[in-house]
Amino acid sequence: MELQRVHSFLESSAAARPDKVALVHDGERVSYRQLNRAANLLAGFLVQRGVLPGDRVVILLSNGVKYVASYYGVLKAGAVAVPLNLETGQETLSRLLDELQPAGIVLEQGAGHLLQQFHLAPPSVRFLLAADASFAQGGAHLVWGWDEALTGEELPQGGRTIAPDALASIIYTSGSTGQPKGVMLSHRNIVSNTRSITEYLRLTENDIQMVVLPFFYVMGKSLLNTHMAVGGTVVINNNFAYTASVIRQMAEEGVTGFSGVPSTYAYLLHRSPLASFRDRLPNLRYCTQAGGHMPRDIKERLLQVLPPHTKLFVMYGATEAAARLTYVEPERLPEKLGSIGRAIPGVSVRVLDPHGEELPDGECGELVASGPNIMIGYWNDPEGTARVLDSNGYHTGDLGYRDAEGYLYVTGRKDHLLKVGGHRIDPQEVEEVLMSSGSLLEVVVLGLDDPLLGKKLVALAVPLGGNPSDRSLISFCHGKLPRHKVPGEIRLVAALPKYPSGKIDRVSCLSLCG
């Protein structure tokens, strides 16, 4: 019988291979049996605290064994897992908690301000489960320590009876185009997408995935679910700032898969010993990239630097799609380097005009996706839901076209287009040209208010060692772009602000230009 609930992935693998290593983190190696038991105990604790099916439970933990046990434990209890960024500011966190009205919060030292300032927790909160032993000494009746909580009875295998269409998780978007939105994903949404990903990546129990992306980010959560589904192993590394140690651990653990966003690979190429480790990564079967547009130059360099047996999967998706929508088959990547590929199994992605009519090959419109992976909607936001979901499916906000072979290309975003002197300009095109100079690690092109042009183009660029001058870069752009697309100013900076997922934070970049 096909598994229809997210926690069934863990339970099925624990039954089939109980002693197999499920997680590796900071020297700790946890088997499927141990992980499943911890999740069962956590679920039992939640039930004892009066958590009901559909109640929200917030998870404020960094990647680790307790995070994974909490995630699956919440689902086993029939509750809704709401992972939040551990570094969320107090003002935003207070707003989100008020919006969610959670039954409880699982947290660690990094979110300890909640233990000192209970006014942040709405009246709905019946418990705070502190993953750090030191934080369980608050003396408040709300606070439980991890070890104390996991001494009760396990929830029986299978957990509560939950319908496949029941809400499983609320995952917040990064907020790159406004306030973060709570994407509601059902068990069916997540399970269907997980199945599609394991199919096209051909994942098996022999796969060992290195995870450097946070689990509260939809791509990080997808890496967890896909490998729990096949009985593989997840190696958690929270130290990507030290790229050399990441590469070394990949070699030591015999990692078969690595995943990242564009900035992840830019740093691996230019700030890590990846090239010198080619012969020490014989097991690295594939790498996957999603999380936004990756410049052509980085893709080309990756294909040269990765071990010859390592396949590179360029992918495209959205939180609203439970992670994944399209991918490029590695064997077609060299000839389709600018493409986001074709739809994954079970999903449809069409190019539509503003009236909802499908456009012929080569004509630009909006990418609209449909399938069992598409979200239920946005939490407490029917208007926002109606703006992106209709009878045609999920309107991604991305503009693009389809070629004669059915491969899709993204040309920009509706909400990122800039009007400069009467011209509509996509900053992605300008960023691509600047990256092709070969002298930058990464770049972002922004539109600053201008009394004459409406907007003026300004680029923030991180140089690669040699410190190119802004004049030489502008001259390079003049040779590649029409005059109205050339940035009026290029500012060289040490680093670009980013979200914890690794995506560039355009809002913070704008504040740098203020």
Automatic annotation (TrEMBL):
Keywords: Ligase. One of its GO terms (molecular function) is ligase activity. Residues 429-503 form the AMP-binding enzyme C-terminal domain. The keyword Ligase applies. It comes from the Bacteria. Residues 11-379 form the AMP-dependent synthetase/ligase domain. InterPro entries: AMP-bd_C, AMP-bd_C_sf, AMP-binding_CS, AMP-dep_synth/lig_dom, ANL_N_sf, ATP-dep_AMP-bd_enzyme. This is Acyl--CoA ligase.
